[in-house]
């Protein structure tokens, strides 16, 4: 009996592992067939239940992913036939001869679904990513839906990641599904002129997820490595499917290089470790190597296509400057300042300008950085943005203007929603004296 129970547990663990790996592909293929995201998720779950009931008796199939997909597709076709039959019954109840209302659309959908039984459907996951990241949704909804559909995170896990109540996140996901359904979108990878804006949205969402892990905007922790890992996984999926796009490779390079420093950004007590104090011997050299390889490919592609380097490729080049420097003193700040000048041209924003101020402050002295940073002081877009007074405080401190620096550090501490960052800023204010 114990041996039987142990075998059943082993099969159940295998089923769950396979489902976790195949979930996004299942949902993507079903959504493309049905044009109904909620039903696609339900049918994918049904396939899991069927596997849990069948595999302990029959054994694990040679190709478990294909078994799950075939099971889910058969049930999808059954649902389409059921919907068509229900439509005919409603027509009869309305005393309208069914023949007078030919369901051509229903017939076409069933034909498409049955044809898909033999279709390779190689783009299911990528198509699902493009759908989940559609610009018709808000940035927050896109990120949440991507983590749910592609990452397989439960609603409570996503809620914790973005520090909202589970009920709030559940409502956000429901609204996102309804919005996509009402928009009547095609569940496929856009082609031609439609690709560029949609790809930009996908890259934005993946990097949004990564950044929320790399520098948490709120909560008790400075970083959330699990979110960084999920964003990097999405980046790998995208890069494998679109290896000829410079910006896709640029984003992969950027995330790999940035992630290499995660373990050194937090001290044992949970406080932040600034870049100049990080132990570079602990940076992940494998990730750096992977990132630099992807960056070289991105820059090579941009050169061959005669394209200006895009924002993700430029940001990866910036990260590479830090990764290549053996220590903080050896950082090539002149090159970094020049890269930020280029980045501001292709992606103008107050945040880029603020980072440019930091770079110029390091390359040309704190007063040069202050000249740039102070142009942002009255911008409504940065009102309440904690990094602005924090950067100004740092530049003032380096310029020897301690009293002014202290005021800015205190202001920044009052604006941040991250507890660890607040403590760090208050410590810097205290170091400036009274």
UniProtKB/TrEMBL annotation:
Gene3D superfamilies: 1.10.1740.10, Winged helix-like DNA-binding domain superfamily/Winged helix DNA-binding domain. Residues 20-83 form the RNA polymerase sigma-70 region domain. InterPro entries: DUF6596, RNA_pol_sigma70_r2, RNA_pol_sigma70_r4_t2, RNA_pol_sigma_r2, RNA_pol_sigma_r3/r4-like, WH-like_DNA-bd_sf. It holds the Pfam family Sigma70_r4_2. This is DUF6596 domain-containing protein. Residues 130-180 form the RNA polymerase sigma factor 70 region 4 type domain. It comes from the Bacteria. Residues 198-298 form the DUF6596 domain.
